[in-house]
Structures are given as C-alpha cells and as structure tokens.
Amino acid sequence: MVTIAISSQKGGVGKTTVAINLAHAFGRNGNRTVLVDADPQGSVGLSLTRQSRLLAGFYDYIDDAEVKVGGLLVPTRMQTLSLIPAGQASDYDLNGTPSSGVASRLRNLHGELADLGIDICIIDTAAGLFGATADVLSMADAVLMPQQAEPLGIRSVPKMLEALTRMRIANPRLVILGVVLTMMQEHLPESRDTGKALRAIMPPEMVMNTVVPRGDLFVTASARGLPAGVMEGGDEVLALFDRLRIEIESRLGFI
Ligand SMILES: Nc1ncnc2c1ncn2[C@@H]1O[C@H](COP(=O)(O)OP(=O)(O)OP(=O)(O)O)[C@@H](O)[C@H]1O
Ligand SMILES: [Mg+2]
Predict the structure, then answer these.
(1) What is the pLDDT of residues 69-89, one digit of tens each?
(2) Does the Cβ of 82 fall within 6 Å of ligand 1?
(3) 3-class SS of residue 126
(4) Domain extents in the chain
(5) Pairing between strand 81-84 and 74-75?
(6) What is the pLDDT of residues 210-252, one digit of tens each?
(7) Ligand 1: does its nearest atom lie under 6 Å from the Cβ of 43?
C-alpha cells in the first residue's frame, strides 16, 4: 500500500479538493483506494449524509486501541473507493498534546488497511505541519503540496519544503512529490506568472506539470462533497486528475 498525504502550510489552498479528486482518479483506475480525512474539521465527511458526522473515524482510531479499521470504512458509489471520516475524538489535535501511542496507532492503521488489500491511501490533512499532520507525515510514503496559483501564496512554499526536508530525518522514506498548482487562472498574468516564479525558485522536479484550473465545477462539487469529475461537464476534470495520478505514479516509480 502506498500512502500519500496531501498537506500544506497554508489553509484554503485546495488540499481537500485535490485529495477527493485524486482519490477518485485512483479508484477509477481500479486501484483499491481509501480517502482518509485527518482534518479535525472533517471536510471530506461532507460528502456523506448528515448522519456521517456522527460516524467514528480517523481520530477515534487514534484515540482508542479497541477501534478496528473495518468499522470505520464508509463505502462510496465506486466499489474501489471508500472513505474514513475524521470522526469524533479530535481532542488529541485540539490539545496539541499527542499521546505517545499515536505513532503506533498510525502504524496499525497502515497495517490494517494493507491487510484489507488497499492499494492507495490518500490522507487529507489540516493546514500546517504540526500535530496530527506531522504524525501522518512521519509514516506516509509521499506528500503532495497543493498551492494556490496566486503571487502571495507561493511565499510559504520554500518554508514548507524546508520543514519537509527536516521531516525526512524522522521519515527517510518520505517522497516529496512537490507542489501542485491549484486554482490557476490562465487569463490572468498574475496567476500564470506564479507558475513561472514557482518553477524559478524550486527544482523543476518539485513542481507537478499538471495544474488544476480555477473552475466553478469545483465549488459546486465541493458543496456536495463530490469529486468534480462526476458532475455534469466533468470530463475535463476526470482527464486532468488522471494526468496528475499518472505523474504521481511515475514519480513513485509505479510505471
Ligand atoms: N480548482 C478550484 N477552483 C475553484 N474553487 C476551488 C478549487 N479548488 C478549491 N476550490 C474552493 O476553494 C475552497 C478551499 O478549497 P479546499 O477546501 O479544497 O482547500 P483546503 O486547502 O482543503 O482548505 P483547508 O486548509 O481549510 O482544509 C473551497 O471552497 C473549494 O471549493
Ligand atoms: Mg481541507
């Protein structure tokens, strides 16, 4: 099983949107995929019914050694894609004082998912690299960093890379997939130039070729908690996230 964390220092850059659509792309490709919501705000859970907010999830698993992964998996309409909602017990993150058992619970989670035959685990994290996100990154195989295509946004990118490089001391396995630009507005020079500026300050292999454009479909889909590709007129989005999936696979050495 390959675990990919979707993380960024800044909030609102498109992490959850990328996580949902990327998990959908892997599922569509036939990879048995789990999308884990490790953000205590629980945005991925929006995709479910209101009752889903009451479901146990990721934080309950971390909190309670009795909880088994099988009981947390929520099926979706796609047989190869299931979700683990954030759950109820997010005190661990709110207090900022993770218990010493967290790392071992995360290893168990990884092991149980792998035993269930899961191929790909996508973890949507909260903004910032502390608390639960740092723990997730300490056991992930790879990290992808969505970044909004606007000039102020990229200021945080070098810091993020520095922090991730430090994190590789704790987790030498961690592959830094790099930045995926989101909400690109091709008609705005400021937005286009952000891409160029990013490529100028970062090693080229640290910026994904696939760029996610700003589009209304993402907003309407997000309100419904759905992958944008399943919405009417979503074919281009499906193709786009397939390209991102293939890029990630080749960086991870799948193909
Ligand atoms: N490509 C896009 N085009 C248009 N709107 C987008 C796009 N990507 C994300 N959005 C919108 O921007 C907002 C923030 O996106 P999202 O929730 O994915 O970011 P996030 O990084 O997960 O935020 P947070 O840090 O709060 O978890 C949402 O309302 C979402 O619908
Ligand atoms: Mg989010």
Answers:
(1) 999 999 998 999 999 999 887
(2) no
(3) coil
(4) 2-148+215-239
(5) antiparallel
(6) 999 999 999 999 888 789 999 999 999 999 999 999 999 999 9
(7) yes
Q: Which CATH number fits domain 2-148+215-239: 3.40.640.10, 3.40.50.200, 1.10.1040.10, 3.40.50.300?
A: 3.40.50.300
d(CA 180, CA 229): 18
For ligand 1, say whether the CB of 38 is within 6 Å of any of its atoms: no
- Quote the tokens at residue 101: 């058992």
Amino acid identity at 50: R
Residue written as tokens 């903004």?
127
pTM of the entire predicted model: 0.94
Distance 14 CA to ligand 1 centre (A): 4
Supply φ then ψ for residue 75, to 5 degrees.
-70, 155
Q: pLDDT tens across 4-60, in order?
A: 999 998 999 999 999 999 999 999 999 999 999 999 887 775 555 455 667 889 999
